[in-house]
Amino acid sequence: MVDINNRKDIIALLNNLKSESVPKFGKMTAQHMVEHLTFAIMFSNGKLPQKLYLPLDKAELIKEKFIYSDNELPIGFKAPMLGDDLPKLIFPDLNVAVRELLNEVDHFDNYFLENGEIEPINPTMGKLDKREWIIFHNKHFAHHFRQFNLL
């Protein structure tokens, strides 16, 4: 299990990731994966607000299936705002990308401390409160950590 609140374990897992690490599935590189997780954190920490891409009834079903169950995120699931091609890398290297990911997770904590009961929008599930975002991020990190044999 991944817990974004346990930074020591997250750092230990990410320390096993190398720029040449090969994924078990998908076409992301290690750095793409870390940057992808960073952007998802930014959806929930006020830096990259999102809109809901699906009808509300479908979003509620997805939320029920993944937030309120033990279901893992399935291989091949693709968020609706992602294109078919890998995005251009933002950071100069994997180490910087990992540092930025950890900075954004810290910002996530501070954002909810400062904004209380805010419910940022997840593009496929709609409004999520802090607890729901933590569940999502834990599952999302676990999904991609399994992708790169970190779990």
Distance between the termini: 8 Å
Mean pLDDT: 96
Low-pLDDT ranges:
none
Number of strands: 2
Helix and strand run: HHHHEEH
Principal-axis shape: globular
- How many H/I helical runs? 5
Spatially, the strands of the biggest sheet line up as 1-2
Number of domains: 1
What is the alpha-carbon Rg in Å?
15 Å
State the helical fraction: 40-55%
Largest sheet: 2 strands, antiparallel
Please identify the structural class as seen in this structure.
Answer: mainly alpha
Proportion in β-strands: under 5%
How would you characterize the overall build of this protein?
- The chain is mainly α and 151 residues long.
- The chain has one domain.
- The protein contains five helices and two strands.
- A two-stranded antiparallel ribbon has the order 1-2.
- A hairpin with a 3-residue loop joins β1 (121-122) and β2 (126-127).
- The longest helix has 22 residues, at 94-115.
- It is globular and about 40 Å long.
- The mean pLDDT is 96.
Top keywords for this entry?
2 strands, globular, 151 residues, mainly alpha
Layout of helices and strands, plus pairs?
Blueprint: H1 7-14, H2 30-44, H3 56-66, H4 94-115, E1 121-122, E2 126-127, H5 130-147
Antiparallel strand pairs: 1-2
Helix pairs in contact: 2-4, 2-5
